[in-house]
Amino acid sequence: MLAAARKELLLERLQRDGRIVAKEIATELGLSEDSIRRDLRELDAAGLAVRVYGGALPASPAVADYAARTAVAPDSKRRVAAAAVALIEPGATVILDGGTTALAMVEALPRTFSCTIVTHSPTIAAALLEHAAEVFLIGGQLFKHSAVTSGAAAVEAASRISADVFFLGVTGVHATAGLTTGHPDEAAMKRALAARAADTYVLASDEKLGAASRFAVLPLDEVAGVIADGTPDLPAMRDLVAAGVRVIPAA
Prior knowledge:
The protein is α/β, with parallel strands linked by helices. It has ten helices and 15 strands. Helix 7 links the parallel strand 5 (116-119) and strand 6.
């Protein structure tokens, strides 16, 4: 089997099964593990897979920069956002992550709704200018790729707040890999914010389900639930439920 055909097959298996075990597929195809691992390295370098110990996981398309992500799955993000807004109690203190799904939450939030929103995203803060909500913006170094602040100053500022709920944006939601994102400093900032909220809910539009990125944010058992836009028969959804995750379907 030619290398191009092997890679196409590997991508099909990633899409179907949500992961590849190098040893198993090498045996199935009658090839060496080294050949499969080389293919997986090349798929990883091309941004089409994420190598993990023993194999690979599907790569998330949500690692693109902020401007590009605005065009990815907008309808799915709106459904997730509406379900997330429904979880906010009047008067609550809410930490809102950066990203396009969080921005969709602002659009879904009634302008007269009374609450306090803490965010490290200047984009989110600006979108709330016409809302009744009190807004606190966490400062720090601006990570332009995602339009959020991160780094030591932002983490220190986050340590001084407390909230009822945190709506967490990630680029990958996978039953085995957990919650992941594409940059280590961003992952650290998300962990710092999650530590300051009583409950954390994950915003999971359809392109993130069953996918993974390079850097771990949190394991699934450390969040209150995943707000997911996917049908119950979707393998990624079934895997989350089988792992004991509370899945909140997006309307």
